[in-house]
Amino acid sequence: MRIRLLFIIIFLIPAALFAGLADTMWLRIYPGSDSLSGDFNQASDIGFDRQGNVFVCGAGEKGSATNTDMLVAKLNSWGETLWVRSYGGIAGSEDDMAHGLAVDSLGNVYLVGVTTQAAPYDQDITWLKFSPEGNLLWARRSMLPDDDIGYDIEIGRQGDLYICGAVTDTHFILSRYWVARINPANGDTVWTRSYILDTLAFNTRRDRHPDFVMSDWDQWDNCATALAIAPDSGHIVTTGFGYSDNRSYQVWTMKFLPDGTRRWQHEHWWSLDYDDAGFDVAVANNGYIYVAGFEENDYNWYDATLLRYAPTGGTPTVRRINDPMDDEDYFFAVTLDDSNPQNVYATGAFYQSTTSRFDIITYKANFALTPLWGTAGTIFSSPQDDYGFDITYNQGRVYVAGQKGNDLVVLCYRSNNITPHDTLWTFTYNSPYNQEDFAAVVCARDSNNVYVAGQVARTSIAGSYTDMVTMRLYYPYPDMGVGQILAPAGTVGYGDTIVPQVRLVNSGNSIARFTTMLRIGNDYNQTVNRTEPVYPGDSVIISFPEWVAHPLGDIMVACTVAMNGDREPLNNLLIGAVQVVSHDVGCLRIVAPVDTVDSGIAVQPRVWVRNYGTIAENFDVRFKIGDGYVSQQSVSVNPGESTLVQFSTWVPTSVGVWAMRCTTMLGRDINHSNDFQDGQVTVRVGERVWPYGWHEVASVPSSPSGRPVKDGAWLAFDIDDGTIYAAKGYKVGDFYAYNIYTNSWVTLTSWPAGTENKLPYKGSTGCYGDGKIWAVKGYNTPGFWCYDIETGEWRQLANVLPGTSGKNPKGGTDLVYV
């Protein structure tokens, strides 16, 4: 079934694109089940598989309006929606949401989030597995009393699966810091671990949609907000916060072995009775752990904070970022680069007291947390509040996703240590309704495959319905070139009808739509507009209207391609040539045989043929004599030249006049009037057919009567063609012709009984004359007959007169033709 009402394809010009280096290759909007109503559609995590397909998850109204589900969508790198799937709790719930995803090496995607259940009415941590085709392979829930929520998910070094979040402890009426290992084959829990920092703390505050928005984090008492896998050991590291009755919230970080053993835990706080929290965690290749979050200082303001733990835990190294006026500053996300040792990057919000607004802070530090982009990092500001929500690194580039005022914003930095550090490029998107839009997450395969997801407004009413947005950013390098002129090319025959074809190649990294023009000679000029997309690296064959090949000679063929923004003009023109040639071969004359030849004497037929065209030709020549001789030879003849063709030997056996024809055979020949040369040859009886002396030859056949030759048999010789005719006699009508050249008999039409009602016997005789056989039947009958050699028919003539004797022919009869 085709997915309907999924991601609406929008090709938009960004609201602002500074530096001119990055643009949207595509942008997709998911409006839920009803684009006119509904409530909440938002992306929370993004990733890709080894084939470059993109997965985005979050909350979506797929089932019905005002009813959110855990939502996941798979798109290919060109933005085509491959599938969208949702999983929800009870109908009418607006709280179901996928918070994190992970993709394994086979392309399976795992989700963790929250769904609302009916009995009892509470929220469950929910984790799901979908196949690469979008089939739900399993679904599991925490099924604990009261509200639980899942925040993050990671795949371990051996394919093991880990999730984290918070569950509610009904005894202490507190939420627990929760971590679990999941069997990826069936979704069952291998182990779970949950912790309460201080059971004396009593906090019953809840929130149905806790996320990265900084005003929601403290709606849980103890919570694991983020999870990471140590590349060197495969150990599991989580961070978040715990609530202490004495010290309020504290950054709470833990490390586990794959078997569930907790190696260590550490609580970090600024001072007594202040709030501190960890929002994200990353583990370096050397096992060091970096936590991003904030601390509340002595002035009751928040400082953006980076912590670095050794692999063995202990007291962390701390780096605090505080604006000069001690206002609110936060880190929300952290990432690492590929240097050795790795540098650490964090992003969040930095409050400017002078402007009374938040700016996006992007901070870089080395292994020891020494700042590399200035003590306060690099700041991106606008006239409104700006926030950095996610950060990632790829191939020397640092990407930040966030919010600029009411606009979605993506920042790209070079990873070098220049200070002050400015963006390589900045991309912003403002939905048509000019309400709150933001980028929640970002991931990158390379600089041409930067994927961003978040939320955009659906109406012009502040705080109203929202849509999920996903986009691909890249460095546009449009380049469409002419790869090859396929036709016409080489040589073509004059007057041939050709369908011109050209292969064009998208050598850029942008989807291409273009116009191409083909010119042939002086009077062919055609244009084709290609509106269907051609993807980078692909080629397409364009066919033009037919061209009739003309004039003779070398003709120039030129193809051009034009596309808006094409960056490489050198491949926009390709010039070639086609040779229009005349294909014309024919027979000049028959050399042999001519006039008269003797039967039985071998003759070698020969003819002259000529190439009247403008190109060397390979063709067949056929020679035919009468109905019994056909010979064919292949020849090669250069233009303007002739050649003598010799055929297989012909031995004439039948006397007479025979028609001859020489035929040249060339499929592309444009002039058939000279393809034939006709003639005739007369075959006469040769002077010596047989050697001297007696020779036994083929016997008279016994069929059709089965009788031998006996009384009444006779022979007649056709001197014109050397054929001997024979009647068997013996009261049968058997009649034959003997070929003296082939030593073979042919059975002819039997001699009829006729009006005398008798067959030849004693006294029967015959002779040849004027192309016919004349015969009397004998057997005491007056029958007189004629056999027509041409028609093969017997005809009864007037009877032999009885004469004065009054007797009919019998033994001793003879016949002669004069």
UniProtKB/TrEMBL annotation:
<dbReference type="InterPro" id="IPR011042">
    <property type="entry name" value="6-blade_b-propeller_TolB-like"/>
</dbReference>
<dbReference type="InterPro" id="IPR015915">
    <property type="entry name" value="Kelch-typ_b-propeller"/>
</dbReference>
<dbReference type="Pfam" id="PF06739">
    <property type="entry name" value="SBBP"/>
</dbReference>
<protein>
    <recommendedName>
        <fullName>CARDB domain-containing protein</fullName>
    </recommendedName>
</protein>
<dbReference type="InterPro" id="IPR013783">
    <property type="entry name" value="Ig-like_fold"/>
</dbReference>
<dbReference type="InterPro" id="IPR010620">
    <property type="entry name" value="SBBP_repeat"/>
</dbReference>
